[in-house]
Amino acid sequence: MTELHWLGATELASALDAGEVSAQEVAGALLQRADEVDPSVRAVLTRTDERLLEDARAADRRRAAGALRSPYDGVPVGYKDIFVTRGTVTTAGSRILEGYVPPYDATVVQRCSAAGLPLAHKLNMDEFAMGSSTENSAFMATRNPWDLERVPGGSSGGSAAAVAAGIVPWAWGTDTGGSIRQPASLVGIVGVKPTYGVVSRYGMIAFASSLDQAGPLTRNVRDAAALLEIAGGHDPRDATSIPGPAPRLLDGIDAGIEGLRVGIVAEFMQAEGLAHGVRARVEDAYRRLEKLGAELGEVHLPISLEHGISAYYLIAPAEASANLARYDGVRYGLRVDGEDVVAMTSRTRAAGFGAEVKRRVMLGTYSLSAGYYDAYYGRALRVRTLIKQEFARAFEHVDVIASPTSPTTAFRLGERTADPLAMYLSDLFTVAAPLAGLPAISVPCGLSPDDSLPVGLQLIAPALQESTMLRTAYAFEQDLGFAASPEGRPPL
Amino acid sequence: MSDAFETTIGLEIHVELATASKMFCSCPVAFGGEPNTRTCPVCLGLPGALPVPNRKAVEYTIRIGLALNCRIAERAGFHRKNYFYPDMPKNYQISQYDEPLCVRGHVDVPTEDGVLRVGITRVHLEEDTGKSVHVGGSGRIADSDRSLEDFNRAGTPLVEIVSEPDIHSAEQARAFVSELRAILASLGVSDVRMEEGSLRVDANVSVRPVGEGEHGAKVEVKNMNSIRSVGRALQYEEARQRDALRRGEMPTQETRHFDERTGRTSAMRTKEFAFDYRYFPEPDLVPLTPSRAWVEEIAARLPELPAARRARFAADYALPAADVAVLTASPEVARWFEEAVAAYGGEPKRIANWVTGDLFGLLNDAGVELTEAKVTPAGLAALVRLVDAGRISGKQAKGVLQAMFDSGAEPEAIVAERGLEQVSDEAALQGAVDEAIAANPDAADKVRAGNLNTIGFLVGQVMRRTGGRADPRVVNELLRRKLVP
Questions:
Q1: Of A355, A385, A415, which residue constitutes the final position of a domain?
Q2: Which parts of chain B register pLDDT below 50?
Q3: Residue A80 catalytic?
Q4: DSSP tag of A243
Q5: Residues on B contacting A at a C-beta cutoff of 8 Å
Q6: Are A251 and A194 in a shared domain?
Q7: How many whole angstroms separate alpha carbon A180 and alpha carbon A406?
Q8: Is B278 close to A369, i.e. CB distance below 8 A?
Q9: Quick check: pTM over 0.90?
Q10: Considering CB atoms only, which of B50, B276, B286 is closest to A370?
Q11: Are A174 and A287 part of one and the same domain?
Q12: Complex ipTM above 0.90?
């Protein structure tokens, strides 16, 4: 049998059902794995060993009593440290929230607990989800399990690395401009950004409210579908959440893609900066989709490519400048005293925020200022509308849009930290989907022939068409066989 | 420079809505209480918390908009108004900017010079802030040692009503606020207590020489905590600006604080900040799209408004304007009065006199609202009927009312208990009359001599002997029969 820490969530659920293993044994194996590899991977910000074991004990008791809360009862889940957890420190990767203990659980956490998923650690991230490498965490840089000198991507780098390294079977991340899909791609796992509004944002510390969306990072497509079913669906606490129950995504996930129309984004494949090895693997993937019965065509997203990054880096910082205003030292978190409230707030924010956060707060404040609003924020909103229209036109001809997730494989630690623009281009192919509110997934498509690092295939679907997207990804994953094989695991 | 000046006043009025829960969370709305006991992650702005709009607050705002003859927007949006202040949990206020719920209305204000129509620019919905308590020094921020924050009020639904600059005197402003308060009270959407801050008035005042095209500098006046203060503050401010202009000085654009004690306004901020609130659409909320059917339903359920009620009171009850104004000042008073009139069944003016006179006197002295008083409308009606029937005197009735006010007892019971019922039976009074004549021979002689004015003295003597219970008309008649040939 495969070691417990390499099992996916659905496989663990089966093992629990079969009585081959107890939830406490699973938790113990994962904690042992964390002891072994996390000192080098550094994915975990706050270990919750006691809570995990306690939750696992409770799960075993429920199983013994025949009172399971869900088919996944007893399968631990990790959380990006952006989800507030009652009684457990939540920092969003920032000094300004160092030691902050929230008094309530995020809806995602609440629903996973209600499904019996033991809480397994708060995972590292770029500060307030601002970054593409997890190097902007105020506490530590997470390493890519495939090469410890490289980044795991970001901002959900801790979640991605923890899943890839076998520290947790699955984890929650958040995606604003690519923060789930890009790290998933860079560490060779599955990452889903759902349609905006499918998963509640309540209790998810806000970066850019109109773009932020929680989603699963998992070892396989089926697990991603299952985690979305557990925590998705309308939440009365989030006014932007879509009415209706959680989407049913597991039904028909294995129905195949015969006749499915897949659009290749012409502009993305011609983009400057698309690495040779990434292109090679993604083109293999397109051929594989065709072999599986899909009809390939070309779609055009020129505005998304040319203006997506610019629009994203105006809208997200503008919203962030307001979202982060509450960290002022008055009510919670860090306070650095001053002679009056203005000095106290200034000093608190100067000490509590990192360079990237300050850069974006300033950018956002500037772009919302009187006299600049129309030229910057207002124009970015108009570009956003054009991008939505561009996708709508593309989806008149295809069911799913395919592209590389990231233009490159994992880059080296420090390689892009000195050049924010180079870092921002990591999101080149991923910012369009959140700008348009669309669901997108990154699914591994093998290792790059150039550097033997994972490459991700991105699939984007029309709003609320997660099932089509997951069915496509599932068919591809099963045929490729990468995720299920030892080749799909990092040498760790 | 001409010696005639004209004043232009525009008002901004904030109304705390009396909804059960706050604007964006389910914490209860109430005044006062232990600091920070009515808070939750949402109204404290904790990381991750999200706002969900209170539908009742939206309904109340539409109700206000309809009562002020506004157009109700088919699509309204919330914006974030960004500024740092310690009593604001998120350091932005969720407010409305270019898509308010209600626009372009008016209020017809009764004034001594007839009806004044004041335009309403907009009515919008936002959230209130918490309260800073400054410790040490005078209690104002400048010389305090430190500040404490109470977030009980944070997130209370707040409606902002902006008037057009159609007001041209302090008295008009006072009348406008008074009428607006009466309208809001009728709607039942707010406590409208200026002292408690559930109705807050800010005024923009500018004075210029008559005929000059340019408006003068706009001065914002704050801290007017009663309707009377509105009149006093603006009167002072008008005079202050006029005097400055007479001296050849231009009033500066600034915010001024009204001091209730001195009756003066003083500059609040020496430097004029050009605030940039960086408004942008609130991404945590979706636009409000009140359906036509809903708006019509709200309109259909609008209560009678003060203007209509005044007209009806004048017509149906034949009351003078002064009585109408007092009796319609609040819907509770109006309802109380109408119940009393219905229970009484006689001339409404009789009830009006008792309510506006003795009853309001008792209420004022005790500092009690009519709705909290122990006297019921039916009780007052019964009391007035006792007077009408001659069973007690008007003077006795005042004492009975006081007793009703104190104990809540029925007038009949008080009269019986105190043995107040008037004695009009001639046989019963005869003894007392004879005694009074025997004890006051001089007075009796004067009457016999034709000095009828002295009868009153003898009547008083009989009243004293009967403990005030004798019917003075009967006593008078008996004395005449005895003494006047």
A1: A385
A2: 1, 271-272
A3: yes
A4: S
A5: 41, 44-53, 80, 82, 84, 86, 89-92, 147, 149, 276, 278-280, 283-286
A6: yes
A7: 11
A8: yes
A9: no
A10: B276
A11: yes
A12: yes
